[in-house]
Amino acid sequence: MHTVAVLAYQGMSVFETGIVTEVFGLPRPEFDFPWYGLTICAETPGPVRLVGGATLHTEHGLDAFAAADTLIVPGVPDVRADPSPGLVAALRQAHRRGARVMSICSGAFALAGAGLLDGRRATTHWRYAESLRRRHPDVLVDADVLYIDLGDVLTSAGSAAGLDLCLHVIRRDHGPKAANMVARRLVVQPHRDGGQAQFIEAPMPDDPADDRLARSMEWALGNLATPISVEVLARRAHMSERTYLRHFARATGTTPIRWLIGQRVHASLALLETTGTPIEEVAAAVGFESPVTFRHHFAQAMRTSPSAYRRAFHTVG
């Protein structure tokens, strides 16, 4: 059994720790392979004060934390303070023996303080990114992504991005079918790519271009099977292509073509789940030029093939 240890800390919110508990701690009798064994640890065994006045109590300290196969630091009490010598020693000891070390949100400050991120890419919540750069100039901070997987060390942005990272780990350990099944139990999207933007300053700007952009996107969703170019979308929004691209990026954090690909992949899921339509026809029905193109983009988005996804989730017959 692969062991996972998550570190509780004084004054913590339970959300990030709850993510880890939900993903790795609940029994999964639907799988025919051993699931993870989860331990909640603290720097000092005993009571841990939580936001809201509650208290968590754990008997497990840093020895148990350092002994796990995967160590997760879901946050730190103060991003302006250095991690304790005991925590630094535990993280370094675990990393030296080949354990996987992960952080969620401000937990990256603990990994950086232990020297595990020197000269390497890492992410954290966007609001802490500049502070992480200042405190640890040897870390290559990327605040524009949801999570980064370096193999031995993994970091994620704030809150829900930690859930994306945990599902990514399941996908890495047990494959896309297991990750998708856990995602369904959680009623969340099965996969968000780690490189996806974690924050968009103005999701929908309040100006006249907003309605025109929204109408063009709504039209595209109703016409996915037809060829759609940036020129077509811009014309429907009564904008030049350059202006359309600028407004689209500001509103969505991506490009029209990448957005279209994502919508087409998403539209294909229902066909794969509820019909026996051949893959070639599914590809055409959602607007991909060829089955090869469909399979390529589907694999990039879902980390599995359309056929494998159908085998996992088909509900007809």
From TrEMBL:
InterPro entries: Class_I_gatase-like (IPR029062), DJ-1/PfpI (IPR002818), Homeodomain-like_sf (IPR009057), HTH_AraC (IPR018060), HTH_AraC-typ_CS (IPR018062), INH-QAR (IPR052158). Residues 214-312 form the HTH araC/xylS-type domain. It comes from the Bacteria. Coiled coil: none annotated. SMART domains: HTH_ARAC (SM00342). Keywords: DNA-binding, Transcription, Transcription regulation. The keyword Transcription applies. One of its GO terms (molecular function) is DNA-binding transcription factor activity. PANTHER family: ARAC-FAMILY TRANSCRIPTIONAL REGULATOR, HTH-TYPE TRANSCRIPTIONAL REGULATOR RV1931C. This is AraC family transcriptional regulator with amidase-like domain. It comes from Actinoplanes xinjiangensis.
